[in-house]
Amino acid sequence: MASILNKIAFKNFFNYYGDYEENTYDLEEGVNIIVADNGAGKSKFFNAFLWLFYDQILDSDTKQRVNVRNSGVKILSDKAKNETVINDRVECGVMLEYTRGTRYKYQIIKSFSATKINDSISDERSWQFLINDVEVNKTELVLHKYKPVYDESEKRQIIDHLIMPAFRKYSFLQGEEVDDIIDFGKRESIEEAVENLTDIKKYEKIHDLLSEFKEKAFKDLQKQLKANNAENERFDEAVKEKENIEEQLDHENQKLKEWQATYDTAEEEKNELDKQYASAEKRKELDDKLKPIRKKLREKKEEFETFLDRINNRFFDGNFAWIAMGFEDEVQKYRNLKEQFVERRYEKRALQNVEENPNEYFHFLPENSPDSVSLQNMIDDEHCYVCNREAKKGTAEHNNIVKLKNRPKDKQTEKPFVKNDLNNFFGDLQINAQPFYNKFDSIRDSVIKTKEKEVELKESIDKLKKQIKSIEDDRNSIMIAGYDAELSAKEIISNYNGAIRRREKANGKINDIIIPKINTFKKQIKAIEQEIKDLNKSNNIPTGYNQNYEVLNDLEEASQKAKDRVFDAMIQLLEKHANIHFKNLIKNNDLTGGILKFEKNPNGSINFNYIDSNGNTVHGSSEGFQRMKKFSVVMAIISANNSVYNYPLLADAPISAFGEGFTEGFFEAISDVFPQSIVLVKELYKREDEMKINELGKRLLKDGKVKTMYVNHVPENAEQIELVTSQTKLK
């Protein structure tokens, strides 16, 4: 009878603010998907089941499971706490309904109440918490009226029937926990899985009992032999020889344990490093790509800094003359001012000359005005072009022009005629400014080209940064938390190979030296025991002692072989089912060929490898690929069971390391194994989309195997005390 969750509801549970009716998810047999971005309630949803099964929650701050009794202030909705006045009480709880079989339906409510005694909403001392007794109700499906269950053992049984404790580790998964479900480096981890699927525990008990009985039977036989062969030297020698060999056998068994411990340690280290080694070569490849790009980025940054330093120079460099930009009209203004200045200057100079030599300069224009060439033309033409009249040779007018042409130059030191003569200043200004106003036509093009160069450099830097970010993201996607900061890819490969060498050395010691010795000693002991029995044939020993020992010896060997046979058969069955599921999981990816291979180690642990068609181990796979291998084994443990699996899959972010192909394969495969799946994911979320799901989410929405799909929402930019999770049911 499969257990199927019909409904889960929350009341003021974390950011599920409000009563149960406002925070209800109706679920169905088959695949149920809840899509939520970070902070939108995935882990909080999962915490409801932790509370249900273990009275715990996962503390998002410490990433540790903590008891609900010590975490009430964190569990209770901040909005509900903020709205509660002092001395008032607020309730927090989760409610689940599930059916089992075709007759009964169960309702389970776990809750607590909190009374506010101080203003601080986040201080544990501001609240008094009361954990309510778990409330369990049941009803027959045809009646739809719940009746309370009062017996505590029945309550526990009803909770356990949702997912039995022995199967929770395969059916109740959170993120990376799938990586730790099966530790193939530890025999007990494999045995636990096999124990849940077979009666191997009974074989072990039988074997242990028969070993004990066999030892006791031999001691009884030995006493009889000694009593009846007191004078038989060979018998005494045989017994001593047997004891000596048994002592050596114990010594070898002790060495076996030590080397098995060495093997286990190396195997554990290898398995731990395998998470990194599987990606170490890829990381190294990415690191090699990063080096030249980072160097190029440094060079571009240096070029950009130099470029920025030179921009200021372009304002004053005559080759660029940027400072003149926008001063085109100033040239004409300067000319006008210069003309006014020259005119006024000539006036002041002329006045000074007249004042100093009134008789000489009274009849004459200022020096050099008109110029000598013009005056000579007027003398030659006998015409004054100043007053536009004739000046015939010999006339007073003509003589006046000649006199003006021959006027004396002032040989005296020129006296200043203005307080500040700026003639040279304006001249120098014009000369110095000439390279700048000659560049007026090219300044804008120069600025535009410089801006284009700046944009080009920035784009180059941004492009390089994006390349680095992309490669680093790829690199980070194959990191294993806690190791990247400590170990480089080269160190990982070195340590990994070192662990393999130590493991192989231990394996060689065990298989090539110790186990052959142990087998030899066992054969020798068996031969001596046979010799002792032969020596005893002539003695008067009750036949029951010999028969008892022989029968128990045969039974002990048979039980050991039966136990090993059951274990080996189950491992082969797990391998078969794991490969079936693995192929289904990866069918939407580009991976080709290869199978999962389980190989039994001397200590009983399992090597779990992915090999190609030539039997070579495949390395360098992504974290998602590694997790997919583990998940295929989890599914194999379930499907290898002879009976139908009767419990739902509850999974929080199990596909966080998957690509789109793996994700699609995951949802297709789980429906073939679990009667119901409730999967919380963010990978299908797309903020910009109207439905808030990406294209893969929309494909899954149309998939007949997907029975319900919800999208969680939280208000944008909401403060913690206003954080509320709502949901939209898409299907």
UniProtKB/TrEMBL annotation:
* Entry annotated with the keyword rRNA-binding: no
InterPro entries associated with the record: P-loop_NTPase, Rad50/SbcC_AAA
All residue ranges annotated as the Rad50/SbcC-type AAA domain in the record: 7-248
Under the heading Gene3D superfamilies, the entry gives: P-loop containing nucleotide triphosphate hydrolases
GO BP terms: namely: double-strand break repair
The residues forming a coiled coil are: 218-314, 447-481
Pfam families of this UniProt entry?
AAA_23 (PF13476)
Q: Give the UniProt keywords, A-Z.
A: Coiled coil
Write one Gene Ontology MF term.
ATP hydrolysis activity
Keyword field contains Coiled coil? yes
For this entry, the protein name equals Rad50/SbcC-type AAA domain-containing protein
